[in-house]
Specification:
Layout: H1 31-46, H2 52-58, H3 63-91, H4 93-113, H5 117-126, H6 131-144, H7 147-179, H8 182-202, H9 214-218, H10 221-225, H11 228-258, H12 263-270, H13 272-291, H14 293-316, H15 322-349, H16 355-380, H17 388-415
Helix pairs in contact: 1-6, 1-7, 1-8, 2-3, 3-4, 3-5, 3-6, 3-16, 4-5, 4-6, 4-8, 6-7, 6-16, 7-12, 7-13, 7-15, 11-12, 11-15, 11-16, 11-17, 13-14, 13-15, 14-15, 14-17, 15-16
Length: about 425
């Protein structure tokens, strides 16, 4: 197997944030623009979570049906990412990004005016086009930085992104109480318009267009799919983040049905993993270049597993509460914040010249698995009287994530990297 140099930037560039001029279409995007892109993608996932029970009443559907707005969203995210990577490597990051945001805006209007739950879910799936913002913000970082610096910069980008899910459910809960569920989607529409303008004014092209046909571009996938290191990094990302995706699918039910929280309080409690994610991303940004990406992923996966395992023990003993359940999710956030930027940088560095393709494929693996875990969490909790089924699922995903990164470490020892 050919071993590429992971320290080589994708196209020979190595920029620092201070070198990027803000609001210039002739140069790379400013770091602030990349943070905004990642933030909008994150807000599309969770801002309306506190509204789910009320939306079920509005559409005269059961909770499990409306919960599909999360799991189906992740599945379509995965499909879109498979397409976005090669498209952006061929045509460039900028046009694909602008097109994805426009689709997101149209779909958001469709969600607002949907007359039935089924039509709402259809437009909600189209909203998944905004995943281009997450995929291409990461690919852009890898265009500009070598492996360890890319991990550090992705950490800083997603640290800024973490602010959004930290406050998103809380804002969503307040907006729902005052204005109704549709107001959350008007918020997404307004932010999407502002982001579209920012990308148009500040996002200069960073990719060196491949010059290959689109069919040949998709034929690059086997190069990644036959790489054990790519699979190791991608699976560790999918399984470690799987604890969070399962949480997204089940936590609204646990908070409202099992612990009896109202919508506003539920929005505040749902934000606890994002607090940890913020600090985990800060640790990644600060220490990835010092300790290397593999150690950061391993430590993060262990912290992630410790948080859910401890919560499971407390629930099994029958002494859990909203404070223990949601409070320990901070450790899940810390672990994800340490692991995901570094594992992502590792996956993108297996073949740096395929950064867009690798970003899309790795993200598809992560979100495809996340969609499945989110749906499974909702199914497990249908008749549950405690949080134990959800916590058991999260613990299993966390444990498998530890095994995935250990396989990468063994592989690199074998290769002498």
């Amino acid at each position: 197997m050919t071993i590429d140099n992971p320290d080589r930037p994708a196209y020979g560039l190595c920029m620092t944030p201070s070198q990027n001029r803000f609001l210039s279409r002739s140069g790379p995007p400013h770091i602030a623009t990349l943070i905004v892109l990642a933030g909008l993608s994150a807000m599309g996932i969770n801002v309306f979570l506190p509204s789910l029970p009320g939306m079920a009443v509005y559409f005269e559907a059961d909770y499990a049906t409306l919960q599909l707005s999360i799991s189906l969203y992740f599945v379509i995210n995965a499909v879109v990412q498979i397409l976005v990577g090669p498209l952006s490597d061929k045509f460039g990051r900028r046009p694909v990004l602008l097109g994805g945001i426009c689709v997101f805006l149209c779909a958001t209007l469709g969600c607002i005016y949907a007359p039935t739950a089924e039509i709402f879910l259809g437009f909600r799936m189209l909203q998944a086009a905004i995943v281009v913002a997450m995929v291409l913000s990461r690919a852009t970082v890898r265009d500009l930085y070598d492996q360890n610096n890319a991990a550090s910069m992705i950490g800083y980008v997603t640290m800024g992104m973490a602010v959004v899910p930290m406050i998103g459910p809380a804002i969503g809960g307040i907006i729902d109480v005052r204005f109704g569920w549709a107001a959350n989607f008007w918020l997404l529409f307004g932010l999407g318009v502002l982001t579209l303008a920012l990308v148009f004014l500040d996002f200069g092209e960073t990719a060196h267009k491949s010059g290959k046909t689109l069919i040949n571009q998709f034929r690059e996938y086997p190069i990644l799919l036959t790489s054990r290191r790519f699979w190791g990094y991608s699976l560790s990302t999918a399984l470690i983040s799987g604890t969070f995706f399962a949480y997204l699918g089940g936590a609204p039910f646990v908070g409202q049905v099992i612990f009896g929280l109202d919508t506003a309080d539920l929005g505040l409690f749902l934000a606890t993993p994002a607090i940890g994610y913020f600090f985990g991303n800060f640790i990644s940004g600060r220490y990835s270049t010092r300790f290397g990406i593999n150690k950061m992923v391993l430590w993060g996966s262990l912290i992630n597993g410790a948080g859910v395992a401890l919560s499971l023990v407390i629930s099994t003993l029958g002494i859990d509460s909203p404070f223990s359940f949601f409070g320990l999710m901070i450790l899940v956030g810390v672990g994800n914040g340490m692991s995901i930027p570094n594992a992502t940088a590792g996956a993108l560095s297996v073949r740096p010249e395929l950064a867009g393709t690798a970003s899309g494929l790795s993200g598809a693996i992560m979100l495809g698995g996340g969609g499945g875990l989110s749906a499974l969490a909702g199914w497990l909790l249908t008749n549950a009287t405690s949080a134990r089924p959800l916590l058991a699922l999260m613990t299993a995903s966390a444990a498998l994530g530890v095994l995935a990164i250990l396989s990468v470490l063994r592989r690199e020892q074998h290769l002498g990297l």
